[in-house]
Design a protein that fits this description.
Helix content is 20%, strand content 32%. By secondary structure, the chain is of the alpha+beta class. The mean pLDDT is 94.
């Protein structure tokens, strides 16, 4: 296995993703950053006593969710603060609503498509039989990606970093595409869970939104380095 062959394996696994930025694009508004969502204002009604307030982080149009094959509805991420000062993330996803009918005071975001090149663990797990043979020649299985010491790993990872919208800090939000291993992760998340969005703006922290199952829906995670 040469580096060019390994990169070709990665390119065959590339997924479509979208990078959202504040710069206007012909595609139209695909989300909003910050501010408030009109039907879910940051200030809470007086009957809510356990929380001080909530902060609208980002909302995504259902048009993007359709593209990545998850539940089609406007998707909003909020950060809640309890009266004790604790913070929690909550995802709002109501299929009865439409993005075009919602009102926001935040900054509009515009989506540009960008291929998502897989990180090294993904190409080990999902590459062709040639990748499995290359790993087998080192006495490893596909799930032993963390044990690879071959120089190809470092060179492939450098190529992934060059192409990665996250590593380039290419915009405000990435929608769809491949996820990657964070320092605190024990394993590469399996395909039963799907990364919907990763925020780049105002990091740290970064926020991830995941989709797991039609019944379980969406959940969010906070990431720090």
């Amino acid at each position: 296995m040469t580096l060019d062959e390994l990169i070709a394996e990665g390119e065959s696994l590339a997924r479509q993703s979208w990078v959202l930025r504040a710069q206007p694009a012909e595609s139209g508004v695909a989300g909003y950053w910050g501010g408030e969502r009109g039907d879910l204002p940051n200030a809470l009604p007086p009957e809510v006593t356990a929380f001080r307030g909530r902060r609208h982080v980002v909302t995504l149009s259902e048009s993007l969710l359709v593209e990545i094959g998850v539940r089609p509805c406007p998707l909003s991420l909020f950060e809640w603060e309890s009266v004790r000062g604790d913070r929690a993330l909550r995802v709002e996803a109501d299929q009865r609503l439409h993005f075009r009918d919602l009102r926001f005071s935040g900054e509009p975001l515009f989506a540009m498509p960008e291929p998502s090149f897989p990180p090294f663990p993904a190409v080990c797990l999902y590459g062709s039989g040639r990748v499995a043979e290359w790993l087998g020649g080192q006495g490893l299985t596909r799930y032993d990606y963390w044990r690879v010491t071959d120089d190809l790993q470092a060179h492939y990872t450098a190529e992934w970093e060059r192409r990665s919208a996250f590593c380039r800090n290419a915009g405000d939000v990435i929608v769809g595409g491949w996820h990657f291993l964070w320092p605190e992760d024990d394993f590469f998340v399996p395909p039963e869970l799907q990364l919907v969005a990763l925020t780049l703006r105002d990091a740290e922290p970064w926020f991830e939104i995941w989709y797991s199952h039609p019944r379980l829906g969406f959940h969010a995670r906070e990431r720090m380095t």
